[in-house]
Design goal:
By secondary structure, the chain is of the alpha+beta class. The chain is built from 3 helices and 4 strands; from the N terminus they run ββαααββ. Strands 2-1-4-3 form a 4-stranded antiparallel beta sheet. Strand 1 and strand 2 form a beta hairpin. The chain starts with 9 loop residues before the first strand and ends with a strand.
Length: 95
């Protein structure tokens, strides 16, 4: 007998989509977070990881998300509400 226990948690994903073509989005990475803190930290780590490679506008937007909008992210996660963070670099949307 196979028994599985599934507790509360958060499924986090990072997708990229080129805005100039009709191809479907590409999964960049994913993470199964057990707590809202883990989920929030994963999103922050992804933004920190990609920000050095972004153009200046997208990098600024990523850092604003990291600091100015982090409280909103945390509140949504505490409510167990879906939350999306997106930045656009050149013609690529990163969500």
């Amino acid at each position: 007998m196979l028994s599985t226990t599934i507790g509360p948690g958060f499924w986090c994903e990072c997708w990229t989509r080129h805005l100039d073509d009709c191809r479907p989005p590409t999964l960049f990475g994913s993470y199964d977070a057990r707590t809202e803190t883990e989920a929030n930290n994963w999103v922050s780590e992804i933004l920190r990881t990609i920000s050095p490679e972004l153009d200046s506008d997208a990098s600024q937007e990523a850092w604003e998300r990291l600091y100015d909008h982090r409280v909103n992210t945390r509140r949504a996660l505490l409510r167990r509400a879906p939350w999306t963070v997106s930045v656009t670099h050149a013609r690529t949307l990163i969500t």
